[in-house]
């Protein structure tokens, strides 16, 4: 190889090496920039514990509001201070079941299980979602998409027969025996999912009020005519509360009280969620929640007819609202408990993440 050829090769390879070195520098700079940007973005939700992936969500709708006069309140907690509360909590998406062509078979099976002759007494439609079966003895409403239902005996005939047997009610029957009988009734309708099977249960003794055609708590001085077993949803990150607080939308009423009690009324309105851990949203503080209470912006869901003002608030805390009718998200609320059985609810997610309820589309 001559000197001129060597000089030419050196210049050629030098240019190639220089270009390669420049590309390496640029590639390294891009990698560093991407990693730096990714690190910054991932640190924000980790530091704050937030990932509001649903964006703005519909404000929770309280289904059993109580109309009252203007109320006044005073804080009456043990230490005279607001309770502590987390600054964020998960919001869970609720998926409606897909509409299928076999819904009629499922609806008919529920009706048959309750003793209806679906051939002789077909259903009548209440609206786009609900249908009704009715016989001389009972009424059954079923949602054709969620398969929620409400069953009740009519005051005459069968119910009257069960109520007349209350004089021989076995009020000494163990609560476990009564609960097991009620649970069997729910299970027979495939209405006992894990989220209520593992939740708390509550038992109340009842009598039937013919004036209002409704069940009311039985006085201690009377022999009860029936027993109601409520099934509350299993607690998650926070406890769950129902629209009526003291009772659940998932329950069974047995009459008369005893191991042979029959189902006089039964309701199942339970929604499942997508089990993905939900999405964290920022919450208002206890101070902000109390301010809403003083401004009359808290929904009253229960209060004794005879009450004294100001109402003494003895506790308030965060909980999840368990809706009776479909709402797209299960979300946290503040619950206020006070004198004269006062119960009040207010949304806990910060306002900037909530949409006005007037934009909510109708759902089952």
Describe the structure.
The chain is α+β, with helices and mostly antiparallel strands and 364 residues long. It folds into three domains: 1-40; 57-94 and 278-359, no CATH class; 147-268, no CATH class. It is built from six helices and 20 strands. It has helices at residues 3-48, 103-113, 158-164, 175-188, 194-197, 286-294, and strands spanning 57-58, 73-75, 88-93, 124-125, 130-134, 138-143, 149-153, 201-209, 214-217, 226-231, 240-241, 251-255, 262-268, 279-282, 299-302, 311-321, 329-330, 332-338, 342-347, 354-355. The strands form four sheets. The protein has a nine-stranded antiparallel beta sheet with strand order 4-5-6-7-13-12-10-8-9. Strand 18 and strand 19 (342-347) form a beta hairpin. It is globular and about 55 Å long. Mean pLDDT is 85; it is low at 5-10, 32-47 and 359-363.
